[in-house]
Amino acid sequence: DQQVKQNSPSLSVQEGRISILNCDYTNSMFDYFLWYKKYPAEGPTFLISISSIKDKNEDGRFTVFLNKSAKHLSLHIVPSQPGDSAVYFCAASLFGGTSYGKLTFGQGTILTVHP
Amino acid sequence: DTGVSQDPRHKITKRGQNVTFRCDPISEHNRLYWYRQTLGQGPEFLTYFQNEAQLEKSRLLSDRFSAERPKGSFSTLEIQRTEQGDSAMYLCASSLRGKADTQYFGPGTRLTVL
């Protein structure tokens, strides 16, 4: 049961343009969402997060949008840079009860930014 | 460097051998998580510690797996009688209870079982 899905395995973008990475989830109880970037042979690096009480969060070139009714979130990177090329994972967390905030990850999207 | 550290970074072992990995979380973090990642997939939750107490274990964690966090600081993950299916990246993450749970990951230990 894949509760968090990233349906695009890869995305290719020209430098300077906008990159949009998408993520869908099925569990309406998730209340905290995160994006991580991962380079080969390294652990995931935290990028940006959003609480379910918000619909947008911005941090520099990165903006995350949350549409709770559609159970959909997206990460916008603008402008995209070659150094952004990596695998991007969305993750969802559930607080309260016995969940302890463990993360449920999507399968990842490989972003390639061409110079 | 005050991030999460893991040791070793790489481990190659023969099937049937036991292996142990270590994780040192960010010093003030009281929550510690172990995840496993296989090729083409996102990390999957294995187990969670609040200080020294192991509060949750995934069904992915068979009886051959055991994790400890004896003094609420570093943690170890042991796999007994390794199998080829155990080959994966083992990731440790830590976070600070009391706020929305942003977990910070270590570099991982790559296990290869021959």
What keyword list fits this structure?
heterodimer, A: 115 residues, mainly beta, six-stranded mixed sheet, B: 114 residues, seven-stranded mixed sheet, four-stranded antiparallel sheet, 11 strands
Describe the protein's architecture and organization.
The complex is a heterodimer of chains A (115) and B (114). By secondary structure, chain A is an all-beta fold. Chain A has no helices and 11 strands. In chain A, 0% of the residues lie in helices and 53% in strands. The model of chain A has no long low-confidence stretch (mean pLDDT 93). Chain B has 114 residues and is mainly beta. The model of chain B has no long low-confidence stretch (mean pLDDT 92). Classes of the chains: A mainly beta (115), B mainly beta (114). The A-B interface holds A 4, 32, 34, 36, 41-46, 49, 51, 89, 91, 93, 95, 98, 100-108 and B 4, 6, 31, 33, 35, 40-45, 48, 50, 55-56, 91, 93, 95, 100-108, 110.
Summary, kept brief:
Chain A is mainly β.
Question: Could you give the topology of this structure?
Answer:
The complex is a heterodimer of chains A (about 120) and B (about 110).
Chain A: E1 4-5, E2 10-14, E3 19-25, E4 32-38, E5 45-51, E6 56-59, E7 62-67, E8 72-77, E9 86-93, E10 103-105, E11 109-114
Parallel strand pairs in A: 2-11
Antiparallel strand pairs in A: 1-3, 3-8, 4-5, 4-9, 6-7, 7-8, 9-10, 9-11
Chain B: E1 5-7, E2 10-13, E3 19-24, E4 31-37, E5 44-50, E6 53-57, E7 65-68, E8 75-79, E9 88-95, E10 104-105, E11 109-113
Parallel strand pairs in B: 2-11
Antiparallel strand pairs in B: 1-3, 3-8, 4-5, 4-9, 5-6, 7-8, 9-10, 9-11
Number of E-type strands of chain A: 11
* Uncertain ranges of chain A: none
Biggest sheet of chain A, open or closed, and with what strands and sense? 6 strands, mixed
Mean pLDDT score of chain A = 93
Task: Give, in order, the helices and strands of chain A.
Answer: EEEEEEEEEEE
Strand content of chain A: over 45%
Proportion of helical residues of chain B: under 10%
N-to-C terminal Cα separation of chain B, in Å?
A: 33 Å
- By DSSP (H or I, 4+ residues per run), the number of helices of chain A equals 0
Strand content of chain B: over 45%
Low-confidence runs of chain B (pLDDT<50, min 5 residues)?
none
How many angstroms does the end-to-end distance of chain A come to? 38 Å
How many helical stretches of chain B?
0
The largest β sheet of chain B comes out as: 7 strands, mixed
Shape verdict of chain A: globular
Helix and strand pattern of chain B: EEEEEEEEEEE
Structure classification of chain A: mainly beta
Average of pLDDT of chain B: 92
Largest interface: A-B, 26 and 28 residues
